[in-house]
Amino acid sequence: MFRGFITILCFSFFGGCQKTDFGSCNTEEALYQNANFPIGTAVSPIEIESNEEYANIVKTQFNGITPENAFKMDALQVIEGVFSFSEADSIVAFADRHRMRLHGHALVWHNQLPAWINNYSGSKSDWILILEKHVKTVVGHFGNTVTSWDVVNEAFEDDGSLRKNIWFENIGEDYIELAFKFANEVNKDALLFYNDYNIAQKTKKCEAIVEYLRVLRSKGIRIDGIGMQMHIHLSYPSNAKIGSAFNAISEADFLVHISEIDISLNTSGEMRLTENKLQKQGEKMFDVVSAYRNIPKEYQFGITVWGVSDADSWITTYFDRIDYPLLFNEQYEAKPMYCGFKEALAN
Ligand code: G3I
What we know:
binds ligand G3I, eight-stranded parallel β-barrel, globular, alpha/beta, single chain
């Protein structure tokens, strides 16, 4: 499946860059070896502890991690006011042991909420107290073991309007700035991010987010960066759209984190996997990373892939289909997507 190394010229959006046959490449050196910014992956504490191949890839190839689920509200505050940090702390220990940057995900979101909060009824000020307690307790617990946080996740709809989620319904849009304010009050060092999907796909969404956060900043709220999740496909969004979104965010003076990248190959659910598709996936990864490297260095916060191998991806369960969106295949072998990533970092 993994063929040799044939360099071809590319006359695409990036004009004049060199693309490669990403069939095979050296995996001895870490993926992050040639990067000027951390290269992370989303992890599960169970896999880290019980799956040697998985843990080995995480610690040898990456120098950043994001807990895929372990820092979410349903994991940390199962019972109202009672926090359990033991699983989450095992990720902190792993990151510390292997000198990896730890990115906290996510303090305030509408998904993966504990059951009690879905049944909670109280006044606006009761809801603000819940928000405050959760954000301050969690940020306070992890202190400076966590470098950065997704403070608010997915507060916008694709059309650029605010999502009418449980926080919005009970507090109003102020929940967004309050979340950042509370996080900042507890930790002045951790970098604070807003994180969302379809930012490159939906121009209106990108513009609305940047403008909204710019206004919050002008009111004195600290927001350091924007996480672009980048759950993308081979042909969508185009490289031009991706490049424009990177530019729009960095030009507005926000750090850019590619926070959850994966590249789906089987959107129809009926695809037969071919070497050509894997190669195209490698090229898309190369294009994304090359575009990211075009923004000024000081805005490059890092690139995080959303999972280790195709066997671990959320897409399989969420969409109930086979897919191949990550850097390693189900046997934990590097795919052309890995080689495309590495090649773009080395260029
Ligand atoms: O915790 C339960 C466990 O107790 C139970 O035994 C098991 C049985 O299925 O389910 C477990 O919960 C699952 C959880 O992942 C932990 O594995 C949920 O069913 C499942 O829905 C949940 O999926 C996560 C999804 O967020 C939920 O929205 C995915 O793993 C995770 O990758 C995904 O991540 C999100 C980001 O946080 C935000 N951006 C989008 C991204 C992809 O959806």
